[in-house]
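Problem 12. The chain below contains 286 residues. Write out its predicted structure in token notation.
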Amino acid sequence: MARSRVFMDFSVENAPVGRVIFELFSDVVPKTAENFRALCTGEKGLSPLSDRPLYYKNSIIHRSIANFMIQGGDFTKRNGTGGESIYGGPFADEDLTHSLDAEGLLCMANRGPNTNGSQFFVTLCPCPHLDGKHVVFGKVLRGFDDVVRKIAEVPVDEKDRPTVPVTITNCGELELRKKSAPPRASSPRLCVMPVSSLIHHSQQKKSLQIPASPKTRRTASDTSDDVGRARLVMMLKTTARDVKGSTSTSTGKIRPAHLRDQRLPKRKGKSPWERGRRLRKNMTPD
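Solution.
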């Protein structure tokens, strides 16, 4: 649970002095902290008892003792005898175990046990003699040295009242900054197009197509020429295969077609001239 933070802007004799930021112990004394927070924001409106706004704004620091504390919160009588809580009257001490052992502690002022209203004081030094008598419900986070100390230096009279007005010109609650969420990884999205757009897109694509040049355009005559050329190539391949098969293994000469199936006579030890003569005789057509 995050603790609440409130602020008070002070002025001395209508001259701005600065801002004091308090952190409230809302996790330890939630009722007391909520009373102070609501009186800083003024969200409760008018008091049904005094018909005064339940609001610290424009109230004064009515008591200041050097090396001890400064006291304020009396927005009804402005002299230390008034003030009231948001609960309709005095409320009980919530926790008295916290020691007043440091400067800058925010404590409830009272007239005895269980008489808490709206008056508060800020310690200027450790005050152990007040332990067990006042509820400690917050501390100064910022503005102690340059604002609280300056208020404590304001001259006072014989009753410890500042001789010039020390006013709370503004007050409220501070909101904690929210951590920004980490950026989400972008996921691919499908683009859905209406049918009419798809048709229009296809028509535009067709209109943008580059027509084929006359040199590359094929016609029916080109196809028939290709078929003719393929047939011619097949015929040449067949003829070459036949010629190769008709070559004589003994002489290396091509035999005519009508003698391709006839076997050559066997050699009988004759001379090459006689063998060639016999061969020419056998090649004579019938």
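Discussion. The helical segments are 30-41, 144-152, 195-207, 220-245, 272-282. Students who got a different answer should revisit the alignment rule from Section 12.3.
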